[in-house]
Design brief:
By secondary structure, this protein is an all-alpha fold. It is built from 16 helices and two strands. The protein has one domain (2-431): Up-down Bundle (Growth Hormone, Chain: A). A two-stranded antiparallel sheet has the order 1-2. Helix 5 crosses helix 15.
Length: 435
Protein backbone atom coordinates (compact mmCIF):
# COMPACT_ATOMS: atom_id res chain seq x y z
CA UNK A 1 0.00 0.00 0.00
CA UNK A 2 2.85 2.38 0.87
CA UNK A 3 4.53 1.69 -2.45
CA UNK A 4 1.35 2.25 -4.45
CA UNK A 5 0.64 5.42 -2.48
CA UNK A 6 4.12 6.76 -3.21
CA UNK A 7 3.82 5.83 -6.87
CA UNK A 8 0.59 7.79 -7.08
CA UNK A 9 2.12 10.71 -5.17
CA UNK A 10 5.20 10.77 -7.38
CA UNK A 11 3.07 10.56 -10.50
CA UNK A 12 1.02 13.56 -9.40
CA UNK A 13 3.55 15.91 -7.81
CA UNK A 14 6.95 14.22 -8.30
CA UNK A 15 7.99 13.72 -4.68
CA UNK A 16 10.55 11.00 -4.02
CA UNK A 17 9.91 8.56 -1.18
CA UNK A 18 12.77 9.85 0.99
CA UNK A 19 11.56 13.44 0.53
CA UNK A 20 7.97 12.94 1.68
CA UNK A 21 8.57 13.82 5.36
CA UNK A 22 10.62 16.97 4.69
CA UNK A 23 8.37 18.09 1.81
CA UNK A 24 5.27 17.63 3.97
CA UNK A 25 6.75 19.74 6.75
CA UNK A 26 7.82 22.42 4.27
CA UNK A 27 4.29 22.42 2.85
CA UNK A 28 2.83 22.79 6.35
CA UNK A 29 5.35 25.55 7.08
CA UNK A 30 4.32 27.78 4.17
CA UNK A 31 0.65 26.89 4.55
CA UNK A 32 0.62 28.09 8.18
CA UNK A 33 2.76 31.11 7.36
CA UNK A 34 0.52 32.35 4.57
CA UNK A 35 -2.63 31.63 6.56
CA UNK A 36 -1.26 33.86 9.34
CA UNK A 37 -0.48 36.68 6.91
CA UNK A 38 -3.82 36.49 5.11
CA UNK A 39 -5.53 36.55 8.50
CA UNK A 40 -3.75 39.86 9.21
CA UNK A 41 -4.23 41.33 5.74
CA UNK A 42 -7.99 42.05 6.06
CA UNK A 43 -7.31 43.61 9.47
CA UNK A 44 -4.73 45.90 7.87
CA UNK A 45 -6.76 46.78 4.79
CA UNK A 46 -9.89 47.54 6.83
CA UNK A 47 -7.95 50.31 8.59
CA UNK A 48 -7.12 52.08 5.31
CA UNK A 49 -10.71 53.31 4.86
CA UNK A 50 -10.29 55.49 7.95
CA UNK A 51 -7.55 57.56 6.30
CA UNK A 52 -7.37 60.05 3.45
CA UNK A 53 -5.49 59.34 0.21
CA UNK A 54 -2.71 61.65 1.38
CA UNK A 55 -2.36 59.81 4.69
CA UNK A 56 -2.25 56.47 2.91
CA UNK A 57 0.35 57.72 0.41
CA UNK A 58 2.52 58.87 3.30
CA UNK A 59 2.21 55.46 4.93
CA UNK A 60 3.35 53.81 1.68
CA UNK A 61 6.33 56.15 1.60
CA UNK A 62 7.17 55.44 5.23
CA UNK A 63 6.89 51.71 4.48
CA UNK A 64 9.54 51.99 1.76
CA UNK A 65 12.05 53.66 4.07
CA UNK A 66 11.17 51.40 7.00
CA UNK A 67 11.88 48.45 4.69
CA UNK A 68 15.36 49.77 3.88
CA UNK A 69 16.18 50.37 7.56
CA UNK A 70 14.80 46.98 8.60
CA UNK A 71 16.77 45.16 5.91
CA UNK A 72 19.98 46.86 7.06
CA UNK A 73 19.25 45.77 10.64
CA UNK A 74 18.42 42.26 9.46
CA UNK A 75 21.75 42.13 7.60
CA UNK A 76 23.53 42.91 10.84
CA UNK A 77 21.60 40.22 12.71
CA UNK A 78 22.20 37.65 9.94
CA UNK A 79 25.94 38.39 10.13
CA UNK A 80 26.13 37.63 13.84
CA UNK A 81 23.55 34.99 14.76
CA UNK A 82 23.99 31.26 14.07
CA UNK A 83 22.08 30.19 10.98
CA UNK A 84 20.14 27.50 12.87
CA UNK A 85 18.80 30.24 15.15
CA UNK A 86 18.24 32.90 12.48
CA UNK A 87 15.06 31.63 10.81
CA UNK A 88 13.17 30.71 14.02
CA UNK A 89 14.32 33.99 15.60
CA UNK A 90 12.72 35.96 12.77
CA UNK A 91 9.29 34.38 13.22
CA UNK A 92 9.47 34.59 17.01
CA UNK A 93 10.31 38.27 16.59
CA UNK A 94 7.29 38.89 14.35
CA UNK A 95 5.00 36.91 16.66
CA UNK A 96 6.22 39.04 19.57
CA UNK A 97 5.64 42.23 17.58
CA UNK A 98 2.01 41.33 16.93
CA UNK A 99 1.57 40.57 20.63
CA UNK A 100 2.93 44.05 21.41
CA UNK A 101 0.47 45.61 18.97
CA UNK A 102 -2.34 43.69 20.68
CA UNK A 103 -1.34 44.87 24.16
CA UNK A 104 -0.89 48.41 22.80
CA UNK A 105 -4.55 48.47 21.78
CA UNK A 106 -5.45 47.45 25.34
CA UNK A 107 -3.22 50.00 27.06
CA UNK A 108 -4.02 53.08 24.96
CA UNK A 109 -7.44 54.62 24.47
CA UNK A 110 -6.53 56.33 21.19
CA UNK A 111 -5.30 53.60 18.82
CA UNK A 112 -4.90 55.80 15.70
CA UNK A 113 -1.09 55.81 15.92
CA UNK A 114 -0.99 52.08 16.67
CA UNK A 115 -3.27 51.40 13.69
CA UNK A 116 -1.00 53.32 11.31
CA UNK A 117 2.10 51.66 12.73
CA UNK A 118 0.41 48.28 12.37
CA UNK A 119 -0.49 49.05 8.75
CA UNK A 120 3.14 49.83 7.90
CA UNK A 121 4.49 46.86 9.87
CA UNK A 122 2.18 44.31 8.24
CA UNK A 123 3.05 45.76 4.81
CA UNK A 124 6.70 45.06 5.59
CA UNK A 125 5.86 41.63 7.00
CA UNK A 126 3.92 40.86 3.80
CA UNK A 127 7.12 40.55 1.78
CA UNK A 128 9.68 39.67 4.44
CA UNK A 129 8.01 36.59 5.93
CA UNK A 130 7.76 34.78 2.59
CA UNK A 131 11.21 35.93 1.48
CA UNK A 132 12.78 34.27 4.52
CA UNK A 133 10.76 31.10 3.91
CA UNK A 134 12.06 30.80 0.35
CA UNK A 135 15.62 31.57 1.49
CA UNK A 136 15.31 28.66 3.92
CA UNK A 137 13.90 26.37 1.22
CA UNK A 138 16.63 27.23 -1.30
CA UNK A 139 19.19 26.46 1.39
CA UNK A 140 17.50 23.19 2.34
CA UNK A 141 16.87 21.68 -1.10
CA UNK A 142 19.12 21.20 -4.10
CA UNK A 143 18.57 22.57 -7.58
CA UNK A 144 16.99 19.42 -9.01
CA UNK A 145 14.77 19.02 -5.96
CA UNK A 146 13.61 22.63 -6.23
CA UNK A 147 12.32 21.96 -9.75
CA UNK A 148 10.17 19.13 -8.44
CA UNK A 149 9.14 20.45 -5.03
CA UNK A 150 8.85 24.24 -5.15
CA UNK A 151 5.61 24.06 -7.11
CA UNK A 152 4.16 21.95 -4.27
CA UNK A 153 5.20 24.61 -1.76
CA UNK A 154 3.65 27.28 -3.97
CA UNK A 155 0.39 25.33 -3.76
CA UNK A 156 0.73 25.25 0.03
CA UNK A 157 1.11 29.04 0.02
CA UNK A 158 -2.03 29.43 -2.12
CA UNK A 159 -4.08 27.08 0.08
CA UNK A 160 -2.96 29.03 3.15
CA UNK A 161 -3.96 32.23 1.39
CA UNK A 162 -7.46 30.78 0.90
CA UNK A 163 -7.84 29.58 4.49
CA UNK A 164 -6.41 32.67 6.22
CA UNK A 165 -9.18 35.16 5.30
CA UNK A 166 -11.90 32.72 6.38
CA UNK A 167 -10.87 33.26 10.01
CA UNK A 168 -11.74 36.99 10.13
CA UNK A 169 -14.76 36.39 7.86
CA UNK A 170 -16.38 33.78 10.13
CA UNK A 171 -14.82 34.55 13.52
CA UNK A 172 -13.95 38.26 13.28
CA UNK A 173 -17.26 39.33 14.76
CA UNK A 174 -16.91 36.89 17.65
CA UNK A 175 -13.24 37.38 18.45
CA UNK A 176 -12.95 41.08 17.67
CA UNK A 177 -10.54 42.61 15.19
CA UNK A 178 -7.61 43.08 17.58
CA UNK A 179 -7.88 39.55 19.02
CA UNK A 180 -7.05 38.27 15.54
CA UNK A 181 -3.50 39.50 16.22
CA UNK A 182 -3.26 36.89 18.98
CA UNK A 183 -4.35 34.16 16.58
CA UNK A 184 -1.75 35.24 14.02
CA UNK A 185 0.99 35.33 16.67
CA UNK A 186 0.06 31.81 17.80
CA UNK A 187 0.21 30.53 14.22
CA UNK A 188 3.72 31.97 13.81
CA UNK A 189 4.81 30.29 17.05
CA UNK A 190 3.47 26.95 15.77
CA UNK A 191 5.90 27.24 12.85
CA UNK A 192 8.97 27.12 15.13
CA UNK A 193 8.94 23.32 15.83
CA UNK A 194 8.62 22.72 12.09
CA UNK A 195 11.71 24.84 11.42
CA UNK A 196 13.79 23.04 14.04
CA UNK A 197 12.72 19.65 12.67
CA UNK A 198 13.65 20.64 9.13
CA UNK A 199 17.00 21.99 10.30
CA UNK A 200 18.00 18.65 11.78
CA UNK A 201 18.22 17.13 8.33
CA UNK A 202 19.13 18.31 4.86
CA UNK A 203 18.20 16.57 1.63
CA UNK A 204 21.13 16.00 -0.71
CA UNK A 205 21.03 15.63 -4.50
CA UNK A 206 20.66 11.87 -4.11
CA UNK A 207 17.80 12.22 -1.66
CA UNK A 208 19.83 11.01 1.33
CA UNK A 209 19.44 12.75 4.66
CA UNK A 210 22.57 14.21 6.24
CA UNK A 211 23.29 16.44 9.20
CA UNK A 212 24.04 20.06 8.36
CA UNK A 213 27.07 21.26 10.35
CA UNK A 214 27.06 24.59 8.51
CA UNK A 215 23.91 25.67 10.31
CA UNK A 216 25.88 25.91 13.56
CA UNK A 217 27.85 28.85 12.17
CA UNK A 218 26.80 32.42 11.52
CA UNK A 219 27.00 33.84 8.01
CA UNK A 220 29.47 36.53 9.08
CA UNK A 221 30.37 39.74 7.28
CA UNK A 222 28.88 43.21 7.67
CA UNK A 223 25.33 44.49 7.34
CA UNK A 224 26.12 46.26 4.03
CA UNK A 225 27.34 43.02 2.44
CA UNK A 226 23.95 42.28 0.89
CA UNK A 227 23.90 45.58 -1.02
CA UNK A 228 27.54 45.15 -2.11
CA UNK A 229 26.86 41.59 -3.23
CA UNK A 230 23.84 42.75 -5.22
CA UNK A 231 25.73 45.48 -7.07
CA UNK A 232 28.71 43.25 -7.88
CA UNK A 233 26.91 40.47 -9.76
CA UNK A 234 25.10 40.69 -13.06
CA UNK A 235 22.98 37.64 -12.27
CA UNK A 236 21.55 39.23 -9.11
CA UNK A 237 20.97 42.51 -10.94
CA UNK A 238 19.11 40.49 -13.55
CA UNK A 239 16.80 39.16 -10.84
CA UNK A 240 16.23 42.76 -9.72
CA UNK A 241 15.24 43.73 -13.26
CA UNK A 242 12.98 40.68 -13.43
CA UNK A 243 11.15 41.81 -10.29
CA UNK A 244 10.95 45.43 -11.44
CA UNK A 245 9.30 44.34 -14.69
CA UNK A 246 6.96 42.08 -12.73
CA UNK A 247 5.85 45.01 -10.56
CA UNK A 248 5.36 47.02 -13.76
CA UNK A 249 2.92 44.36 -15.01
CA UNK A 250 1.20 44.20 -11.64
CA UNK A 251 0.68 47.95 -11.39
CA UNK A 252 -0.39 48.40 -15.02
CA UNK A 253 -3.07 45.71 -14.77
CA UNK A 254 -4.27 47.06 -11.41
CA UNK A 255 -4.54 50.66 -12.63
CA UNK A 256 -6.22 49.63 -15.88
CA UNK A 257 -8.80 47.56 -14.00
CA UNK A 258 -9.39 50.38 -11.54
CA UNK A 259 -10.03 52.85 -14.35
CA UNK A 260 -12.25 50.55 -16.42
CA UNK A 261 -14.40 49.74 -13.36
CA UNK A 262 -14.98 53.39 -12.49
CA UNK A 263 -18.43 53.25 -14.15
CA UNK A 264 -19.60 50.45 -11.82
CA UNK A 265 -20.87 50.90 -8.26
CA UNK A 266 -18.78 49.75 -5.31
CA UNK A 267 -20.79 46.57 -4.73
CA UNK A 268 -20.27 45.45 -8.33
CA UNK A 269 -16.57 46.22 -8.16
CA UNK A 270 -16.29 44.14 -4.97
CA UNK A 271 -17.96 41.24 -6.74
CA UNK A 272 -15.49 41.45 -9.63
CA UNK A 273 -12.46 41.61 -7.31
CA UNK A 274 -13.80 38.74 -5.22
CA UNK A 275 -14.41 36.67 -8.33
CA UNK A 276 -10.84 37.31 -9.49
CA UNK A 277 -9.42 36.29 -6.10
CA UNK A 278 -11.39 33.04 -6.17
CA UNK A 279 -10.31 32.25 -9.72
CA UNK A 280 -6.67 33.15 -9.01
CA UNK A 281 -6.40 30.91 -5.96
CA UNK A 282 -8.18 27.99 -7.64
CA UNK A 283 -6.05 28.13 -10.78
CA UNK A 284 -2.85 28.68 -8.76
CA UNK A 285 -3.41 25.66 -6.53
CA UNK A 286 -4.12 23.29 -9.41
CA UNK A 287 -1.27 24.63 -11.53
CA UNK A 288 1.26 24.53 -8.69
CA UNK A 289 0.33 20.99 -7.75
CA UNK A 290 0.24 19.40 -11.18
CA UNK A 291 2.09 21.59 -13.70
CA UNK A 292 4.97 23.57 -12.19
CA UNK A 293 7.30 20.65 -11.45
CA UNK A 294 6.66 19.18 -14.89
CA UNK A 295 7.46 22.47 -16.59
CA UNK A 296 10.69 22.95 -14.66
CA UNK A 297 11.97 19.38 -14.94
CA UNK A 298 10.98 18.76 -18.56
CA UNK A 299 11.49 22.13 -20.23
CA UNK A 300 14.01 23.83 -17.95
CA UNK A 301 14.03 26.97 -15.88
CA UNK A 302 14.28 29.42 -18.80
CA UNK A 303 10.92 28.35 -20.25
CA UNK A 304 9.37 28.12 -16.78
CA UNK A 305 10.31 31.71 -15.96
CA UNK A 306 9.40 33.03 -19.42
CA UNK A 307 6.01 31.34 -19.74
CA UNK A 308 3.85 33.87 -17.88
CA UNK A 309 5.66 36.94 -19.32
CA UNK A 310 5.19 35.55 -22.85
CA UNK A 311 1.49 34.95 -22.22
CA UNK A 312 1.17 38.54 -20.99
CA UNK A 313 2.72 39.84 -24.22
CA UNK A 314 -0.13 38.19 -26.12
CA UNK A 315 -2.67 39.32 -23.54
CA UNK A 316 -1.60 42.97 -23.65
CA UNK A 317 -1.68 42.96 -27.45
CA UNK A 318 -5.23 41.60 -27.27
CA UNK A 319 -6.19 44.41 -24.86
CA UNK A 320 -4.62 46.96 -27.22
CA UNK A 321 -6.75 45.66 -30.08
CA UNK A 322 -10.00 45.29 -28.10
CA UNK A 323 -9.82 47.14 -24.77
CA UNK A 324 -12.38 45.89 -22.30
CA UNK A 325 -13.05 44.62 -18.80
CA UNK A 326 -13.27 40.92 -19.71
CA UNK A 327 -9.79 40.82 -21.24
CA UNK A 328 -8.30 42.77 -18.34
CA UNK A 329 -9.86 40.36 -15.84
CA UNK A 330 -8.41 37.44 -17.77
CA UNK A 331 -5.03 39.17 -17.79
CA UNK A 332 -5.18 39.76 -14.04
CA UNK A 333 -6.11 36.16 -13.29
CA UNK A 334 -3.36 34.86 -15.57
CA UNK A 335 -0.74 37.18 -14.09
CA UNK A 336 -1.52 36.53 -10.43
CA UNK A 337 -2.18 32.79 -10.69
CA UNK A 338 0.85 32.36 -12.94
CA UNK A 339 3.00 34.23 -10.45
CA UNK A 340 1.87 32.22 -7.44
CA UNK A 341 2.10 28.85 -9.18
CA UNK A 342 4.94 29.22 -11.72
CA UNK A 343 6.86 32.49 -11.72
CA UNK A 344 7.50 32.81 -7.96
CA UNK A 345 8.58 29.18 -7.43
CA UNK A 346 10.73 29.43 -10.58
CA UNK A 347 12.32 32.63 -9.34
CA UNK A 348 13.13 30.98 -6.02
CA UNK A 349 14.84 28.12 -7.85
CA UNK A 350 17.44 30.64 -9.00
CA UNK A 351 18.64 31.02 -5.41
CA UNK A 352 19.53 27.34 -5.03
CA UNK A 353 22.71 28.12 -6.98
CA UNK A 354 24.06 31.05 -4.97
CA UNK A 355 26.02 31.33 -1.75
CA UNK A 356 24.28 31.06 1.61
CA UNK A 357 25.12 34.68 2.43
CA UNK A 358 23.38 35.72 -0.78
CA UNK A 359 20.27 33.75 0.14
CA UNK A 360 19.92 35.23 3.60
CA UNK A 361 21.39 38.73 3.20
CA UNK A 362 21.03 39.78 -0.45
CA UNK A 363 17.78 38.04 -1.30
CA UNK A 364 15.64 40.02 1.21
CA UNK A 365 16.96 43.23 -0.35
CA UNK A 366 15.78 42.02 -3.75
CA UNK A 367 12.45 40.72 -2.45
CA UNK A 368 11.57 43.76 -0.36
CA UNK A 369 13.53 46.92 -1.17
CA UNK A 370 13.67 46.32 -4.93
CA UNK A 371 10.05 45.15 -4.98
CA UNK A 372 8.76 48.21 -3.11
CA UNK A 373 10.93 50.47 -5.25
CA UNK A 374 9.42 48.80 -8.32
CA UNK A 375 5.94 49.58 -7.02
CA UNK A 376 6.83 53.25 -6.74
CA UNK A 377 8.43 53.36 -10.19
CA UNK A 378 5.56 51.46 -11.82
CA UNK A 379 2.90 53.65 -10.25
CA UNK A 380 4.53 56.88 -11.39
CA UNK A 381 5.25 55.43 -14.86
CA UNK A 382 1.59 54.60 -15.36
CA UNK A 383 0.52 57.98 -14.00
CA UNK A 384 2.94 59.73 -16.36
CA UNK A 385 1.65 57.81 -19.38
CA UNK A 386 -2.04 58.23 -18.52
CA UNK A 387 -2.19 61.70 -17.03
CA UNK A 388 1.06 63.27 -18.18
CA UNK A 389 1.08 62.19 -21.83
CA UNK A 390 -2.62 61.38 -22.02
CA UNK A 391 -2.41 57.85 -23.43
CA UNK A 392 -5.60 55.78 -23.50
CA UNK A 393 -6.12 52.16 -22.50
CA UNK A 394 -5.13 50.75 -25.91
CA UNK A 395 -1.93 52.76 -26.16
CA UNK A 396 -0.89 51.93 -22.60
CA UNK A 397 -1.55 48.26 -23.36
CA UNK A 398 0.99 48.48 -26.21
CA UNK A 399 3.55 49.98 -23.83
CA UNK A 400 2.80 47.20 -21.35
CA UNK A 401 3.32 44.62 -24.10
CA UNK A 402 6.82 46.04 -24.65
CA UNK A 403 7.54 45.74 -20.93
CA UNK A 404 6.26 42.16 -21.04
CA UNK A 405 8.61 41.40 -23.96
CA UNK A 406 11.53 42.76 -21.95
CA UNK A 407 10.40 40.68 -18.98
CA UNK A 408 10.36 37.56 -21.19
CA UNK A 409 13.91 38.16 -22.40
CA UNK A 410 15.20 38.75 -18.86
CA UNK A 411 13.49 35.52 -17.77
CA UNK A 412 15.20 33.54 -20.53
CA UNK A 413 18.58 35.06 -19.62
CA UNK A 414 18.18 34.20 -15.93
CA UNK A 415 17.02 30.66 -16.60
CA UNK A 416 19.83 29.94 -19.04
CA UNK A 417 22.44 31.53 -16.75
CA UNK A 418 21.29 29.41 -13.84
CA UNK A 419 21.40 26.20 -15.85
CA UNK A 420 24.80 27.07 -17.30
CA UNK A 421 26.61 28.25 -14.18
CA UNK A 422 25.17 25.92 -11.55
CA UNK A 423 25.00 22.20 -10.96
CA UNK A 424 23.30 20.41 -8.08
CA UNK A 425 25.90 21.85 -5.74
CA UNK A 426 25.59 25.25 -4.11
CA UNK A 427 28.19 27.53 -5.61
CA UNK A 428 29.94 30.50 -4.11
CA UNK A 429 29.09 34.04 -5.10
CA UNK A 430 32.35 34.17 -7.01
CA UNK A 431 30.82 31.89 -9.64
CA UNK A 432 28.14 34.45 -10.43
CA UNK A 433 28.82 36.58 -13.52
CA UNK A 434 30.43 39.87 -12.61
CA UNK A 435 28.66 43.10 -13.49
Amino acid sequence: MAISFHSLLNRLIKVERQEIAAASMSFLFVFTLMAAYYLLRPVRDAMASDWSDAELSWLWTVNFFISIAAILLYGQVASRIELRKLVPFIYIFFASSFLLFYFGTRWLEDTSLIDKSFYVWVSFFALFHISVFWSFMSDLYTGSQSKRLFGLFGAGASIGAVLGPTIPVFLGGILGIYNLLLVAALMLILIIPIIFTLQKTRATATGEITTSADSARSIGGDFFDGFIDLLCHRFLLGICLFIMLYTMMSSFVYFELKNVMVEYDRATRSQYWGMMDLAVNSVAILTALFATSRLATRFGLALTLALVPAILVIGWLAVAIAPGLALLIGLQITRRAGNYAITRPGREMLFTGVARATRFKTKPIIDIVVYRGGDVLAGWTYTGLAQGIGLGLGAIALVAALFAMAWTMVAIYLGNSHEKNNSDVTVSAAVLPEA
